[in-house]
Amino acid sequence: MPVNQLRRDPITGRWAIILNDEFDLNDLIIQSPKLKNKTQTCPFCENNETMTPPEIMALRNPGSFPNGPGWRVRVIPDRNPVLQIYGDINNRGVGLYDVLDGIGAHEIVIETPHHNQSVIDLSEAQIQEVLLTYQARILDLKKDERLRYIVVHKNTGEAIGETAHHCYSFVIGSPVTPKRVKDELVNSRDYFQFKERCLFCDIIRQEATMKERLVLEDGVFFAYAPFASRRPFELWIGPQKHETFFEQNTEMKMLSKMLKALFAKLFKLLNNPDYILAIHSGPNLQAGKRRGYWQTLERDFHWHIEITPRLETDTSLEVGSGFPVNPVPPEKAAELLRKTD
Amino acid sequence: MPVNQLRRDPITGRWAIILNDEFDLNDLIIQSPKLKNKTQTCPFCENNETMTPPEIMALRNPGSFPNGPGWRVRVIPDRNPVLQIYGDINNRGVGLYDVLDGIGAHEIVIETPHHNQSVIDLSEAQIQEVLLTYQARILDLKKDERLRYIVVHKNTGEAIGETAHHCYSFVIGSPVTPKRVKDELVNSRDYFQFKERCLFCDIIRQEATMKERLVLEDGVFFAYAPFASRRPFELWIGPQKHETFFEQNTEMKMLSKMLKALFAKLFKLLNNPDYILAIHSGPNLQAGKRRGYWQTLERDFHWHIEITPRLETDTSLEVGSGFPVNPVPPEKAAELLRKTD
User: Which residues contact B70 (CB under 8 A, 6 or more apart)?
Assistant: First the structure.
């Protein structure tokens, strides 16, 4: 039997332990609770617009009005934002510590007016509109020089209450770069300085040649199971041509088609799993210019989307030691996903 | 009302969002399952020694024999180790990726022969023997030049089966340094190069002056709620005098006394929570010398113990965006813990 492997992810610098034991897919699947019927009390449903703060933007049918029905995608501020949009960052030291006031944006993108739809119920056209909405929000928030980084993310496994059965995601605009993203930015920059090539471009070229971790490619986008996957069936999707900013990509129709196909595979193979999705785009150069920190960046970083199904895995070693333990080698995950249709 | 704060942890470089809302302690407490009675099938119980692999070491009563009853602390290899001790690391590249065979140590420290004891049931003398056992295992594993880092950790919330009700911890010897620990080592080294002082010493001096995050001090050890705590009631404990290696400390009696007092406070205030404990010591200089990487280290790093109770907190933002959101400011956590006796 081959031994387990320690694998290093070149983008984040993090090691994972990839097991080589046999695994039973059924042991990994968490039975998600059944969807609930539409209720009167979900604030994200059409006709309940008055239950939310006023909308920031919406994609609307002709003749409909803001904060009324007739929308297809709707963006609102979180009712209890952890970061708030008004005020000064007030960057300061407390002795040797760094502290900022919790300034930023904390927005909710409601991806459909209908309750009880999950991502695989959305049409390609609807997914495309959600992606275009993310782009619009990132572009708008990047006008704010206080905000260094805009994260788009989604986590279907943690929501509680009525909204747990409504399809939505978050856009967070932050005055600091999250550690995980900063690791990616710094490693990508260091690699470029060393090799004069983009790290992510090199990875895609290698994966396209090796093919064992490839899941889908369409000439524009490339989806694969990363070499040092932290979790079973983790997937990364990025443009095949070098591009720093997700919000500048003009192929959202192609991307929605690929995402639809990937989610169809994941949902069929893993029995409708909860999942986490995050878009890692380049940072806000408006904020960067002010600090003169990221000026070489545009050539360095390569945007991508990370999708991670929420499966039953033992995280006790990871939490204590820092090593994620992944029972499904990414080559096996990619093979199973390629075969699923 | 004061706004939320973004706080940066100087040792790891990670930001956390500290909320300033009111919180109800009872909302955070997870009701842990009741302890089960001793059974015939727990392999960690005294008299069941034949159910485990042969012991690596044990603290034994006079007249007792290896792999029989009569021990007070017992160390065994994990039956299903994610890292195995025999073989070559086989450090190699796969194209641009780095990979090593899963070589290392994966040991279990059984902290008591008795079922159904949690850490607060152990006497100071017993805790001291557990700490001395950790030291012995670290010293022994550091003789192995293949191993770069030895992690001691414990996670009472994830165990399943019979052993869930037995008190034990892990010692992992790894050929690579976990990302989280490496961040600490690199930040500590960079700080020393900039300031010519130890970062952790500076933190302890500052916390000893400010006092608002101090929980306990006894002239030798110092326990406090870190400024950018990721989780409510996170605690760090370290020696007040600069010291790089946990395993070289000769004050384990004092440390066991402080840990006993801290756990008594945590268990009383938070109703017997599950918790994570990790010891961060300096890396293995034997492995370091071979690679010439850590030679300035002894002055840079300062060992410490991290204890984090497992409470009900919303991690959805953290998982997607990378920002932990902590509803209990560490000043408040420290105040509540100081008042608990």
Answer: B46, B60, B61, B63, B64
Task: Report yes or no: A163 at the B interface, CB cutoff 8 Å.
Answer: no
Residues 6 or more apart whose CB falls under 8 angstroms from that of B87 comprise A3, B101, B103
Say yes or no for a CB contact (<8 Å) between A175 and B6.
Answer: yes
Is the Cβ pair B6, A102 closer than 8 Å? yes
**Chain A positions in Cβ-Cβ contact with residue B153 (cut-off 8 Å):** 319-321
Query: What does the DSSP assignment read for A155-178?
Result: ETTS--SGGGGS-EEEEEEESS--
Nearest to B110 by CA among B155, B163, B33: B163
Q: What is the DSSP letter of B137?
A: H
Residue A179 CA from chain centroid, whole number: 15
Give CA–CA dist A192/B178, Å, rounded. 24
**If you average pLDDT over every residue of chain A, what do you get?**
91
Q: Which residue of A82, A179, A227 is in closest CB contact with B322?
A: A179
> How near does any CA of chain A get to the CA of B236, in Å?
14
What whole-number distance in Å separates Cα of residue A166 and Cα of residue A163? 5
Q: Using an 8 Å Cβ cutoff, are B148 and B176 in contact?
A: yes
B307 to chain A: closest CA residue: A320
Strands A235-239 and A304-309: antiparallel
- The full set of domains in chain B, from first to last, is 5-21+44-339 (3.30.428.10)
- The interface predicted TM-score of the complex, written ipTM, equals 0.89
**Structure-model confidence comparison of residues B14 and A258, the more confident one:** A258
Q: What is the pTM of this model?
A: 0.93
Q: Do A95 and B6 touch (CB under 8 A)?
A: no
A24 in contact with B, Cβ within 8 Å: no
